[in-house]
Amino acid sequence: MASKFEEDLTCPVCCDIYKDPVLLTCAHSVCKACLQQFWETKGSRECPYCRRKCSKEFPPPNMALRNLCETFLQERSQRASAGSEVICLQHSEKLKAFCLDDKETVSWVCRDSKKHKNHNFSPIDEAVLEHNDELKIKPLKEQLKTFEEVKLLCDKTTAHIKTQVHNTERQIKEEFEKLHQFLRDEEAARISALREEEEQKSQMMKEKIEKLSREISSLSESIKVIEEEMEADDVTFLQCTLQNPEKLSGALINVAKHLGNLKFRVWEKMQEIVQFTPVTLDPNTAHPELILSEDLTSVRLGDEKQQLPDNPERFDLVCSVLGSEGFNSGTHCWDVEVGDNTWWNVGVMAESLQRKGDFRSLSGRWYVGYYDGNYREYAPPQPSTLLTVKKKLQRIRVQLDWDRGKLSFSDPDNNTHLHTFTHTFTERVFPYFHTRCNACPLRMLPVKTSIRVEQHRQTN
Fold first, then answer.
1. Using CA atoms, how far apart are residues 83 and 94, in angstroms rounded to an integer?
2. Are the C-beta atoms of residues 435 and 321 closer than 8 Å to each other?
3. CA-to-CA distance for 374 and 386, rounded, in angstroms?
4. CB-based contacts of 295, cutoff 8 Å, min separation 6
5. Mean pLDDT across the chain
6. 130 Cβ neighbours under 8 A, 6+ residues apart
7. β-strand 331-337 against 442-444: which pairing, if any?
8. 418 near 389, Cβ under 8 Å?
9. Residues 221-235: pLDDT tens digits?
10. What digits encode the pLDDT tens for the residues 59-112?
11. What pLDDT shows up at residue 24?
12. Rounded CA gap, 272 and 189, in Å?
């Protein structure tokens, strides 16, 4: 039977020795994984033992209890290895039975535990004789199963790669078609302007030619009259005042206007249809429940879990996604539109921080979040603190100064500072986003771009 000390080290949920225990506000402790599973099942944050509400989304680890449990298990293991019989490390009891359902040796305490409830057992000596061959081949079968699972994952990944290529190629063609259409429209507009100028100049020349023709006809008539007067010895023709026709300026096509810096002017005008977004989301890191826009600038929670490869880069428990580009030097800034999103986190995450399982209490993330009407700053494993925000945020600005170790958050709409983390960064960090809202996405906002022409002057 378990000792009183061992009972004190037992989780009330799984009835085993605590694994990564966390301390609730009611002073009870629970395994971190057990607590997460209990909260997800209940749909509310309450203590599994006393049912009191827990005010903290991420309870702090109970380091003292964890150290006691580790020491207890270590000493029990040493005692077990020193004895002549094999001992259950979990309950410090001799292994006397064999579970026919799980195909593993157990103690009598294990037999009565929740894990082996309603299972079939046989004495361990009978099991050795009966299942000797099976026990020998079991590790090989388990290894074969592992290889088959990895192969299945590789097959799914290969199929997903083809899907990615197909979708990406389609989007590339669509984006270039927009550029091609812009250039075609611009070409048509410029040729139309050229034709319009041609028509104007041609009409102007036509009117000038008609006027000159009339003047030529008039002069021809005058010459004829004068010649007749000369034959009559009339001197009145000497009093005639003649004016030369004016040459028409600006009659030629303004070729320089149509061809001068043509490529540059078109490029300059392309700013109207081309945007630059400082942060592009990485779909290979996105949790399967998240939906990313085709241009990879917005993310929201989907209605169901997508069938995506469980690649090492992808979050599998927390609904998060990273930016595609990490930073290990310099200053960087990006704006995120949060709008009416009801549950979001925005910040940065260290490259080395694990993305599988529950990593929420581990260090390596610095972010600001909104949930249940409150704004908080988070830097696990430190407890979060409330932020004072007078007006509901529509946008949030993230400013990272990697070299100086500063990460600042502000409201760009009224230039209000929200919070600044100070930390000596030693590795690459990536923009980090988390959302549990499917009604309003988080959207990366583009920045204004400008084309500047530098004039080089030579000074003596």
1. 10
2. no
3. 7
4. 171, 277
5. 83
6. 122
7. antiparallel
8. yes
9. 888 887 877 776 655
10. 888 887 888 888 888 777 666 554 445 566 666 667 667 777 776 777 767 767
11. 84
12. 16
**3-class state of residue 2 by DSSP:** coil
CA distances from residue 19 to 9, 42, 80, 213 in whole angstroms, order as listed: 10, 21, 20, 106
- Interior CA angle at 69 toward 63 and 72, to 5°? 140
Residue recorded with tokens 């004495």: 123
Task: Give the three-state DSSP class for 336.
Answer: strand
CA angle 330, 336, 403 (to 5 degrees): 15
Measured over the CA atoms of residue 290, residue 292, residue 297 and residue 301, the dihedral's sign is: negative
d(CA 258, CA 266): 11
Residue 387 DSSP code? -
From the number of C-beta atoms within 10 Å of its C-beta (0-12, 13-18, 19+), residue 349 rates as buried
Query: How far is residue 35's CA from residue 21's CA, in Å, rounded to a whole number?
Result: 9
Helix axes 132-231, 262-269, angle to 10 degrees: 130
pTM of the model: 0.57
Residue 166 CA neighbour count, 13 Å, CB half: 6
- Interstrand relation of 29-31 and 21-23 (parallel, antiparallel or unpaired): antiparallel
| Dist. CA 11–CA 382, nearest whole Å | 24
* The Cα angle at residue 244 between residues 240 and 247, in degrees rounded to 5: 165
Q: Which amino acid is at 270?
A: M
Confidence of residue 240 (pLDDT cuts 50, 70, 90): low
Average the pLDDT over each of 149-158, 273-282, 362-371 and give the range with the smallest value.
149-158
Cβ(440)–Cβ(300) under 8 Å? yes
Both structure tokens of 51: 């049912």
Instruction: Report the C-alpha gap between 18 and 32 in whole angstroms.
Output: 9
Residue 12: asked if its preceding bond is cis (omega within 30°), the reply is: no
How far is it, in rounded angstroms, from Cα 160 to Cα 252? Answer: 61
314-371 confidence digits (pLDDT tens) = 999 999 999 999 999 999 999 999 999 999 999 999 999 999 988 888 999 999 999 9
